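Reopening: Basic leucine zipper and W2 domains 1 still failing for me.
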Amino acid sequence: MSNQKQQKPTLTGQRFKTRKRDEKERFDPSQFQESIVQGLNQSGTDLDAVGKFLDASGAKLDYRRYAETLFDILVAGGMLAPGGTLAEDMTPTEFCLFKAQEDIETMQAYAQLLLFLKGFSESECNKLAMLTGILLANGTISASILSSLFNENLVKEGVSASFAVKLFKSWLSERDFNSVAASLRKVGMDNRLLELFPANKRSCEHFSKYFNDAGLQELSGFVKNQQSIGTRKELQKEIEDQMSRGDPLKDIIAYTREEIKKNNISEQTMIGLIWASVMSSVEWNKKEELVTEQAIKHLKQYSPLLKAFTSQGLSELTLLLKIQEYCYDNIHFMKAFQKIVVLLYKADVLSEEPILKWYNEAHLAKGKSVFLDQMKAFVEWLKNAEEESESEEEEDAD
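Support: Ran it again with your exact input. Result attached.
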């Protein structure tokens, strides 16, 4: 056996490739501008096309890394050289803020593109959000600009919700919440704020926790109330649909009771919804002398439904107020009020005590003199019947 040491193998002449993920991409704002400008020029003056191009390019181009370059392009048309002039060696784009028409509508459109790009750092986003809130408070821009926050990618990455926190804090530092709410309602944003979160987190509970933790309890309460209103509208429509289909009353009652439990709706709120549904489910005669007879016939049919949700005195009083309001708002029903109340009394929907309470102190101002005068004889009859009943009870006791 040879004592000569065995020579170790060598790897001379071989070259290893660097993994792609280990390669550091060269910072090249000129190439970035060339790509963006080319896409903007191809999109022309169509803002929707520009928006789609910028959104699609975000997946390929590093907006965060080239945020300053992107901002220069969208505002001035291209990269700015020292001194604030456009770099002469680069082709600019005509699609930029400085080349746009000088009117509010165009500026709002550009604001949507400029304010909500993912390229900005957290600090830059915060500053933009605060500025946007101030502009909203001053009425410089419309609250419709918030629709840009509902972009799927921004929502998914949490940019929309965090931006909204800073924006609303800034807005509310300048205006009270009633003013903010009015601006949101004006452009239909009051029912869309849950869209700041992805579908799996789009609930009142999650919204409330997020914005309560951020110190925006008024906004949380507003959204909760709006959702509740939306739920009630949907419920009323469903009850109306069930009536128009001719579903059995026992099925409508069962469905409604289930919705009360599921949505934590009070009986007082529900009787108001049912009354509205019942009165909306028929086309009323325009002649005053005929509408009363039509109403009595219709309400007699649905009195079991009304009775199912007037188990409390407060619910009965609520129903009486709804009837008064409806008869006042619909002039053909002005003379029908007393007949409707008497019908519901005979059907055990309404009882003596709530009727007397309504008559003596709890009525609305709407049509007060007309309706009280209509009810005077019936109320006297109720009082006498009540006194006779008490007298009989005393005699029985003796």
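Residues 283 and 338 are 21 Å apart (CA to CA). If you still see a failure, please send the error message rather than a screenshot.
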